[in-house]
Amino acid sequence: MLARFNAGARVSLLIGLTVAVVGAIIGGTIGIIGGIRGGAVDAVLMRGMDAILAFPPLVLAMAVTVGLGPGAATATWGIVLISIPWYARIVRSEVLRIRSQQFVYAAVTMGASPVRVVRRHILPHLVPTVLTQAAGVFSYGILAMAGLGFLGLGVQVPTADWGSMITEGLEYALGGQWWISTFPGLGVLAVTAAAAIIADNGREAFSRPGERAGG
Hints:
Layout lengths: L1 H36 L1 H15 L3 H12 L3 H28 L2 H8 L4 H37 L11 H12 L5 H29 L1 H6 L1
Helix pairs in contact: 1-2, 1-4, 1-6, 2-4, 3-4, 4-6, 5-6, 6-7, 6-8, 7-8
């Protein structure tokens, strides 16, 4: 049980990290393009994000997984699809805020190209926001994969992950072997709670830099 728990932890953490990183790259790129270009490009991109957000997240992940076939890879892509609009919306709002600052106007006035403005003046200011969002997405990725694994749509046997271990353990719970599903459940709870705490603390620290410096 300990060996399977450790193996399941590796799989679950890797999936959560993959969801957070890939979602940040794709969603962040969409948010930057929408915030910089504006107009029709921004409208089309954001309406696409709104269309994804119109579906319940776990139901959409289940639909993608069922359509592509159950498995860790398809379930991961289903969860990544859910995370893209979260990144895109928050990055776009930050880009709109940053591009209105005087230092951006000064760079544009001096002849800086849009690519240089994004690379030198916008991206560095987006890092705290994206990292804070990534901590929350990491937590949700693990939780969503556990839910899909519980339904038999996530990681398939013989590979162990916490969600499938919980499902397998329920068969033995009535016989008194409660620990088979309890410890994977506690693992999911501990990791998601830790990621949520990191996200909250990071959001508070980055939103109040003056207080942090004064303390």
